[in-house]
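Sequence design from tokenized structure. All designs in this work follow the same two-part layout: the structure record, then the generated sequence. An example of the structure record is given first.
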């Protein structure tokens, strides 16, 4: 009986340890999402807004834009940004990141700066607050589902 109890205790401890071993800490998960935000922003700077919003969109992503217009679906988001001024730029950085305990969803918010030049070269800058909801993909990457 003692051997059976000892075996049970060892198996229980081993299972508990192996489950915890694969779980990432809150800090590690937040770092992953912060990197996704940074990579997203970097791609927007290097390849343009359309490329970035397409590359980081989940297949079923939705974005909310002017006058509460909702654009749903990765392809529709790409088409929407193709219609925006080609000389527009945007930069942002999250001020806050929260990740679900199971590491499958996250949300961020922070400040953004959107800049455009008109035909006469006059620059217009708009600032605001962004809010993004992220979903971990099957390959482990993060894509936004709401922006």
């Amino acid at each position: 009986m003692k051997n059976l109890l000892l075996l049970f205790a060892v198996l229980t401890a081993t299972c508990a340890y192996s489950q915890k071993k694969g779980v990432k800490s809150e800090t590690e998960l937040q770092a992953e999402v912060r990197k996704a935000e940074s990579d997203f922003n970097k791609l927007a700077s290097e390849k343009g807004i359309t490329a970035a919003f397409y590359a980081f969109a989940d297949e079923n992503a939705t974005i909310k834009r002017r006058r509460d217009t909702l654009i749903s679906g990765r392809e529709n988001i790409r088409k929407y940004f193709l219609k925006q001024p080609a000389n527009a730029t945007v930069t942002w950085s999250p001020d806050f990141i929260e990740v679900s305990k199971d590491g499958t969803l996250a949300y961020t918010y922070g400040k953004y700066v959107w800049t455009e030049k008109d035909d006469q070269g006059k620059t217009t800058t708009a600032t605001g607050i962004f809010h993004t909801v992220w979903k971990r993909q099957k390959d482990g990457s993060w894509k936004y589902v709401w922006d």
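Confidence is low (pLDDT under 50) at residues 1-19. We note this feature because it recurs in several other targets discussed in the main text.
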